[in-house]
Write a structure and sequence with these properties.
The protein has helices spanning 50-62, 116-121, 130-139; strands spanning 11-17, 19-20, 23-31, 34-38, 41-43, 64-79, 84-98, 108-115. It is α+β, with helices and mostly antiparallel strands and 153 residues long. The chain has a 4-stranded mixed sheet, sandwiched between helices. Strands 2, 3, 4 and 8 form a 4-stranded antiparallel sheet that branches.
Length: 153
Amino acid sequence: MNDKTSQWKPNVTVAAVVERGGAFLLVEEQTADGVRYNQPAGHLEAGESLVDAVIRETLEESAWRFTPSALIGVYQYHQAASGTTYLRFAFAGELSDHDAGRTLDTGILRALWMPVAEIRSCRAKHRSPLLMQCVDDYLAGRRHPLEVLHHHS
């Protein structure tokens, strides 16, 4: 396609997948479809690296400082209702400081830890099917070194 007006671009997002003792860090958020669950996740900002984006989004949505250690996978999801396609980069990593007094992003009701069985049982309240897919891939041991990502500014 040479016509620049016909170029299509997905919405690039990042997500943090963090497990402690069989439970995963999730956020409960108010959406147009009601209250939904998701990993701490959000959009890549202009000029930002994917790693910097997941660190920022995790802090903004959960008040936890996240250090990514591996890329779990890259996921393409087309949301039929909105016609939007998302390209998600999901990261595994560790948490350090928690700022309990930090105000969370608009729409985020709370951060919580949820066991895998509970995550599976509430699929109707998932923000997208990517939540469960990322957990399943994490549990399957999928990890790629962060060196597969290159950010050129």
